[in-house]
Amino acid sequence: xxxxxxxxxxxxxxxxxxxxxxxxxxxxxxxxxxxxxxxxxxxxxxxxxxxxxxxxxxxxxxxxxxxxxxxxxxxxxxxxxxxxxxxxxxxxxxxxxxxxxxxxxxxxxxxxxxxxxxxxxxxxxxxxxxxxxxxxxxxxxxxxxxxxxxxxxxxxxxxxxxxxxxxxxxxxxxxxxxxxxxxxxxxxxxxxxxxxxxxxxxxxxxxxxxxxxxxxxxxxxxxxxxxxxxxxxxxxxxxxxxxxxxxxxxxxxxxxxxxxxxxxxxxxxxxxxxxxxxxxxxxxxxxxxxxxxxxxxxxxxxxxxxxxxxxxxxxxxxxxxxxxxxxxxxxxxxxxxxxxxxxxxxxxxxxxxxxxxxxxxxxxxxxxxxxxxxxxxxxxxxxxxxxxxxxxxxxxxxxxxxxxxxxxxxxxxxxxxxxxxxxxxxxxxxxxxxxxxxxxxxxxxxxxxxxxxxxxxxxxxxxxxxxxxxxxxxxxxx
Length: 478
Fold this sequence. Notes:
Blueprint: E1 2-5, E2 8-11, E3 22-24, E4 27-29, E5 36-41, E6 46-52, H1 56-71, H2 80-96, H3 98-109, H4 113-134, E7 142-143, E8 151-152, E9 160-164, H5 170-184, E10 187-191, H6 198-210, E11 217-219, H7 224-233, E12 239-243, H8 246-258, E13 264-267, E14 273-276, H9 282-294, E15 306-310, H10 314-325, H11 346-362, E16 365-368, E17 383-386, H12 393-396, E18 403-409, H13 412-420, E19 427-431, H14 435-444, E20 449-452, E21 471-472
Parallel strand pairs: 9-10, 9-12, 10-11, 12-13, 14-15, 14-19, 15-18, 17-18, 19-20
Antiparallel strand pairs: 1-2, 3-4, 5-6, 7-8, 13-21, 16-17
Protein name: Aldehyde dehydrogenase family 2 member C4
InterPro entries: Ald_DH/histidinol_DH, Ald_DH_C, Ald_DH_CS_CYS, Ald_DH_CS_GLU, Ald_DH_N, Aldehyde_DH_dom
Keywords: NAD, Oxidoreductase
């Protein structure tokens, strides 16, 4: 495949799919049933490969392997230094294979190839190295007891962990879940999203190459209602970590409660406010607001999907947004000229379009977009609605696509109240040059992560997670 970008010519051969089976106890195996399912390329709606469809019987085998590896295997018993060195080798292998992994995520999820190769994959390796460095720094506390006795706490690996990861960032989410569990000495079963199974299987064999013992990382591809449900309700799983929709998060908690009361970490949906005060430089902030909703075609849990603009710069800001959006290229994610690829699958494509129709019916005004592209694949125009009111569906519900709701506000007090008027509480952006406003607003909005004069500013050392219907516990950080 040869693509050009002005004077830059990109030569890239789309890789063959190497791994389509389940990965259990260090081996690629067929599902017990022998069933498979199709993974679809959202660029052209064509079948990429048939993937083994894991179900309850396969989850049982994977959990059994993980339990044996935890109870009797070497991984929890290795010195932290040995675990660290294996994880560092894993990170090196991720970088060595960055181009192929990025291509898998582009084919499977419609993600921009250049962004995957230059951002997603390197950051995944960075996450793995961060947790490799944490492996020998997991300490307890010596207690000053009130009686004449000695006491101390000891942090121990919890055991077998079930990771259920989403389709929007299949690479980063795999490493964000697996990395800390490896560092702690846990073993695990990973259930990737059925839309994006390819990179998780690829990572499984990289882990084995790095020296992770058999049974420590198991990957069972399949559907949430079967494989995912079996993992959540399994009596021999000690913890579940789930990133996905709020609706499914409730089912995960229910299954955990009805089985062995395993603890659950949830990172769920979002409807994050991006608040712009009238003292900012419009030329600098407008592009950031647009990236806040259009990055990864809007399929981001922390997307700034509610844009609040103070009335003093409202018209000027909208004009700049419209101007930038006209230059935004929606196209093949392997094309270096593209800014936005297709939505992940037909279901998500139709869901986004249905929300756009809701916005039209409710009386919001289309500033840009509003349509699917007239071509094969799941491509949608960048869509900006103005005149949006807080009660409208497009302002209340997570769309998870390139759809922005723009609203005008007058005062600090007003925008705080409106920003908090949501079931979600994951992230927010506050754009101002006034330190008092920045402090007041950031301490008043009930969300887990607040970015001031920046957005999507993730770092391995900075934990993130949400309030309210966005779940609890945190990813990243120590």
